[in-house]
Records
---
Amino acid sequence: MENRNQTPEREQWGSKIGFILAASGSAVGLGNLWKFPYMAGKNGGGAFVLVYFIILFLVGFTLMLGEIVLGRHTQLNAIGAYRKIRKNWAWVGGLGVLAGFLILSFYSVVGGWVINYIIKSVTGGLYSSDPKVLGNIFNDLVSSTMTPIFYHAIFMVLTFIIVLGGIGGGIEKASKIMMPALFIMIVIIAIRSMTLPGGVEGIKYLLVPDFSKINMDVILNALGQVFFSLSLGMGCMITYGSYLNKDTNIPQSAAIIPLVDTGIALLAGLAVLPAVFAFGFEPEAGPGLIFVTLPAVFSQMPLGGLFAFMFFLLVLFAALTSSISMLEVCVAYVVDEWKWNRKFTTILISLAIFIMGVPASLSMGPWSHITILPGKGFFDTYDYITSNILLPLGGLLLCIFIGWIWGIDQAVKEATNNGTLKFSLAPMWGVLIKYVGPIAILIVFIRSFI
Ligand code: PFF
């Protein structure tokens, strides 16, 4: 009865907490630890955080639930899920696979920087609180030719090794240990950073909105960040939901994941921005922000070197639990749809992603003069096209698909396990996914691009 729509051989999560940890593992990653603090720094601090929260409530929760429900109902990857319900919608899933592929190709470059910093923290190369020294260490790394490409390759190899381990074995096991450890570490670092002399300024910068800073760019960036951070809009949660069994409480999981994700992003912001003000870094420094500020915090901590090592190691694990989800979306598609061998597919796609990532890495140094979009090199272009265009577009289409094609009644039936679960927010969710979500995304799109 419970397993009514399942193909018998499809793998499943070992436990409910296993799914929540793995889905949070996908959501919590470089998006929270690396991107959120620098996006907040660049987009007006509190103004960005405020807009982020509004979008999170209106669109983030809504789509999280929508994706998981669609995945469990169809028990298929992103493309198969759309196709099963409406044949000519399969391309929307395809858009998601493309987004995953593109994101991972620059994500893995940043993952490589993290691996390099783990090594630096052991060899002692990071011991300073001087913004100039730390800035140079970062710039030397990212602007060189071979070193970042080498570490990008290592990151991709690690990702594909875990994905080859399968769902139960690799992803679930790793998440169970690493996520709680990461949480504890980041709390300790945030406390140290906030209590630095002058750190209060950073807390204010992050949490007190200056309304004059809110403009369409800030709103589009916040929208993109919500999608990126929650792993939404590319079918990742559809694929993860497809491994769920029929008695899981999806509405509950869909609420927990964004809460965990946002909590970690805020903590990362509270670890980075107070240090920015305490040591005199630039809040608008961009992608290097976490790499230059946190070593300064570690230098002011007892056992700072050990802390730096453990922290960057945990960042690596968080990045890996996200990167595996992106690779999984691509692999699940090819294996499910084209019936290719899983091992071969995983290796081939990983290799392709690595090659795509090489220009992104080079654009931080030797290729910095090449622009693809106005003012943007390869790295920034991949980021912009995925976070600010493909993911929100995928989200918009998912809202339309669930609200208007599949139908709210069907979706709620799946979300409540055929009416056996209480989900009192169902009517509100229906309105959000049918009207509020698509209209909000459309307005931001239209105002930003036209
Ligand atoms: N959510 C991840 C992060 O914040 O690092 C990145 C990500 C993973 C985006 C998976 C999209 C995705 F499908």
Note: Residues 1-8 have pLDDT under 50 and may be disordered.
---
Amino acid sequence: MMKDYLKISDEVAAALVEGKPVVALESTIISHGMPYPQNVQTALEVDRIVRENGAVPATIGILGGMLIVGMNKDEIEYMGKNGTKVGKASRRDMAAMVEKKLDGATTCSATMIIAEMAGIKIFATGGVGGVHRGAETSMDISADLQELAQTPVMIVCAGAKAILDLGLTLEYLETKGVPVIGYGTEILPAFYTSTSNFKVDYRMDTPEEIANTFKIQNDMGLPMGMLVCNPIPKEYEQPADFINPIIEQAVRECQKKGIKGKETTPFLLARIKEITGGDSLESNIKLVYNNVKLAAQIACEYYKK
Ligand code: PSU
Ligand code: MN
């Protein structure tokens, strides 16, 4: 039975029973998305920001084959220290990792699935996976997009990173019926930059409006999630003419090295950080804080009685 391998922390379980706002958080960003020790520091600060904004944090990951909802400090430290030694867990990895009693850092897709099992509706991260550049030959499309199509959990992110093909990512989401909401903007933010050449479906200016829309979508029994795109604060963004050539260089190196599949995104993130001398990491951390705050505010509205 599911409860044999789903482990919800006491705090999160109590919050869910009482109908308090809970925000899910992923662990791939900890193990594969950022280096140690910044990854652990960020995860702990994220925990604090969620609380400061009136919600309960639920960091999700797989440990020893258990699906953990509400990882404690030691578990977060363990994930962060072991970094890429911890497997990257997407939808297709979940059952095998449980059977083999493995550790897995959950991507957006696996985090959404586990959040849904636990009854959590709102999830915050940095960037979501998408259609990779060159996907017309590589077929590299993140499982996150299909997950958004079929699992009714909201992702609050800073838009799609320019390591992806933003246009194709939006087309895919349109085909799959996933609404793309811009918080305070009609322009799709692109992670390190607050703008791009693309538009979102709807601009919404308050957490309440976003929460209400998602409630209506869920009430209608529609099966999909929602992608809320929150632009990086201007003071932390990387100028497009600085970051975009670096991203292009990283993508070229990735192709040259023949890196494929689940290694692609972690390689690109690490390489961009290296080339920018850590500047990109600073932006990455700041945009995560910004997203987590918004997600907590949306969760508070969603669970308002
Ligand atoms: N984008 C980021 N940082 C990340 C990720 C994406 O800016 O850490 C992680 C998320 O966990 C996301 C995953 O779900 O990468 C997508 O990986 P892939 O492209 O292999 O589906
Ligand atoms: Mn991929």
Note: The chain has a mean pLDDT of 96.
